[in-house]
Each structure stands twice: as C-alpha cells, then as structure tokens.
C-alpha cells in the first residue's frame, strides 16, 4: 500500500472513532444533567445539615457553606423549588419538602457509606471526606451495595 494511502487510512480510522456531532452534543448534555443532579444533591444535603444544626437554613448559611454567592444560591433555590425539593419565601428560612428530605437522606447515607469505605482502606478522615464528596454522586447502586457488604464483614 502506498504511504499516502496508509496515512489516509489512519486518518479515516481516526475520524470513524470520533463521535458524531450528535453523539458529541449528547455527551455534553449528559454531563450538564449530571452536574445539575450533583448540585441538587449537594444543596438538599447541606440544607438538611444546616437545619439540623442551626434549626433553620438561610441563603447566607448556604452561600458560606457551599462557597458560592448569594445570587448563585437564590438561582439554585428557584430551580430546587420548581423541582419540588424546597419551599422558600423571600427573607425567610429555606425548608425541605418531603421529596427534599427523602433525597437528602439518600445523599447522606450514600456519602457516609463511601466515606466509611475509603477510611477502611486506610485513608485519613480528611481525604476520605473530600473524596467521598465527589464519588458519592457517581457511584452506582451496585458498587454502593458492594461497599456496604465489605464494611459489614469488617
């Protein structure tokens, strides 16, 4: 095979391995959806934690705890309210709905399981907590169940 033809063949193979424009767009849509789910989970879990420790959660509390601006918190709360996870009133506390409480409990349990598993591997508390914060959003139910089984055996 002539050299130019081999290069063309390699280029053609590389083009075929790349996702199409539609596939590429879907990859980014899925990534944005996943990030939105992570943010929702972080907010409801944080609202539950703040409410448990302070009696109520306010925008200022969320902004401080999550390291974001008040504007970001207000925009996110509007989306969470529309999704049915929180109820809010201007200049008042933020309350989780039944759906919000359910999601917060699931998130907390998942986080605790992942953190405990990471600690069981010998990671420090600090590293286990930091890594669990990222992993908890992406761990499959099957993997989470495996973590729980291994933790029960110890």
Within CATH, the superfamily of the largest domain carries the name: Winged helix-like DNA-binding domain superfamily/Winged helix DNA-binding domain
Number of strands: 2
Cα Rg: 22 Å
Could you tell me the CATH topology label of the largest domain.
Arc Repressor Mutant, subunit A
Q: What fraction strand?
A: under 5%
Encode the helix/strand succession as letters: HHHHEEHHH
Number of helices: 7
**What percent of residues adopt helix (DSSP H or I)?**
over 70%
Number of domains: 2
Largest sheet: 2 strands, antiparallel
The CATH class name of the largest domain reads Mainly Alpha
Outline type: globular
CATH architecture of the largest domain: Orthogonal Bundle
- End-to-end distance: 61 Å
Overview features:
154 residues, mainly alpha, Arc Repressor Mutant, subunit A, Diphtheria Toxin Repressor, domain 2, 2 domains, two-stranded antiparallel sheet, 7 helices, globular
Structural description of this entry:
The chain is mainly alpha-helical. It folds into two domains: 3-96, Winged helix-like DNA-binding domain superfamily/Winged helix DNA-binding domain (Arc Repressor Mutant, subunit A), CATH 1.10.10.10; 102-153, Iron dependent repressor, metal binding and dimerisation domain (Diphtheria Toxin Repressor, domain 2), CATH 1.10.60.10. The chain is 77% helix and 4% strand. It is built from seven helices and two strands. A two-stranded antiparallel ribbon has the order 1-2. The termini are far apart. The model has no long low-confidence stretch (mean pLDDT 88).
